[in-house]
Structure formats: C-alpha cells, structure tokens
Amino acid sequence: MKIAVVQRPPVLLNRSATLADAVLSIGEAASNGAGLVIFPEAYIPGYPSWIWRLRPGADMALAEQLHSRLLSNAVSLDGDDLLPLREAATEHKVTVVCGIDERDAEFSRGTLYNTVVVIGPDGELLNRHRKLMPTNPERMVWGFGDGSGLKVLDTPCGRIGTLICWESYMPLARCALYALGIQIYIAPSYDSGDKWIGTLQHIAREGGCWVVGSGIAFRGSDIPDSVPGKAELYPKAEEWINPGDSVVIEPGGRIVAGPMRRELGILYAEIDLERVGLAQRSLDVVGHYSRPDIFTLRVNTKALNPVEFEASKDA
User: Fold this and answer.
1) Residue 112 lies in a domain
2) Residue 304 forms part of a structural domain
3) Which of 10, 118, 236, 307 could make an S-S bridge to 126, C-beta 3.0–4.6 Å?
4) Using one digit for the tens of pLDDT, what is the confidence trace for 212-225?
C-alpha cells in the first residue's frame, strides 16, 4: 500500500485557492498509486506562523488584521467548506488526512480550533480531532480540543489515528491511540529538525506502528503579497520559514522515506501493515508489556460543551 505526504505550502489565508491546490495534489498522488494522501497541520487556510514573529503586546493591530483574515477563511464543518476535498477523495477513491483551521459552528462561532480531519474514499468525514493543547503562542489563536476525536479508524489503508504536532509529546495521548490498535500514526506538524524526527522514531519503536510526520515547508516567496504585514514579518523571499521534514518511519524506528527538507513536493512510501504485528511481538505497551495491576489510564471521550440547553418541562 502506497501513501503520499503532500509537502507544499497553502495559499495562505485563502481557503478556496488552497482547496483547489489540495485537489490537484490528491489527483497527482492518486495517479502515482497512493491510497492515503496526507496534508500538513492547519493546511487550510494555513498555519499562523506569524505568532512566532509578532512582538507580544506591540503588534496588536497587525495581529488583529491577520486573525480577522484567518477567521473569515477558516473551515466550518457545519456546511460544505470541505466539499472539494470530499469530492476529490471520492473521485480518486483515496483516504485523505488534512489539517485545517476550524471555525466552531456550534456555539459562539467565534473560536478557532487546530483540527485534523479524516475523509474516507467515499467522501465521508470519518473523524474530526481538535488539538488538545495548543503550544505557547498558539493559545492566542486556537481553543482547547477534547477527547471526542481521539480515535483510531478502520480504513482501506489500515487503522489510522492522528495527533497534531506537540500532542506527540503527551505520553498519555499516545497511549490512548496505542490501546485503540493504531497501525499508522499520523503526525501533522509545524515542528521539524532532528529532535522532532527522533521523537517520531521513538513513537514507532514504542507503539510498534508506522509513523508519518507531515511537515510544513514554505519560503518567504510562498506567502501571498496580500497577507497583512508580509513585508515586515517575512522580508526575505528565499528564507525557508519552515523546512518541512516530512518523513515515514517503519515500526521499530527505521526511516524509510524522507526527511524531505527544504523541498516542496510529495513524499511517497510503501507500507506493509504486517510489520506492526511483528514489531509488537516483542514489545506491546498496551498488551503483554503492560502492567494494568499497577498502571491504568482513563480517557474521557465525551464532547466538552460550554453550554447545555434543556427544554422546559412546560414547553
């Protein structure tokens, strides 16, 4: 089974243009035999990289401009915002994993979440996982997710699950996915570099599963001129703001594809799911290598809603 990891920049802060690019990438990956197509963290309409460059408290007006654009181009799962992606998955009969900036459509409609969605080859939205803990200045952009999307899904490509970026540093979140029988652990991420790749290799050893790191790669020249503050935040056109480092790692920790560093394109890899069972023969951290008489984990998978409405008994 072949997988494809798309390492291309979005059209930052432009949902419709980014979706159009994603549809082209899905078609290209499918034409090369991929059955699973993976996009980076917050790909639609882009990761808010400016949060790492704004001066705290000094660039408030620019921060508000950028957030306003992000909010208006974010994805609502309550309508047809992802219809082009769903139609492409159906047309090419592939499973799609994609990071989005999700605009909450259930309550205030003003909160954004760092979300990853899984779309099946029939175009059905199989899961929405919201990042449990936004990292550092990310908390100025995204709300906190809950455990309702902490799932492992049966797909034609195997049992897949996702954790976003530094969620992979949360050992209990990893353990939850291991317990659900994950075969392909997908980690869309803004992080990169040898330390991050080492973390993913550790997860492949610990979980006895395939690990796919889906990185974000873009230069200053990849940011549209229409993005507020581009000239001051990203003055060097050829600067790699993020190098990507997409990578595919087999159970046990050996890298089989990538890392794709400072390069744009699609990373392909062949995956053999039988390797998972073989790796867990000697180490199964939620099976024969666990000690439930000493350690237990409780996971709350209930949606955590800020408001609950109850009908009056007189209604």
Assistant:
1) yes
2) no
3) 118
4) 999 999 999 999 99
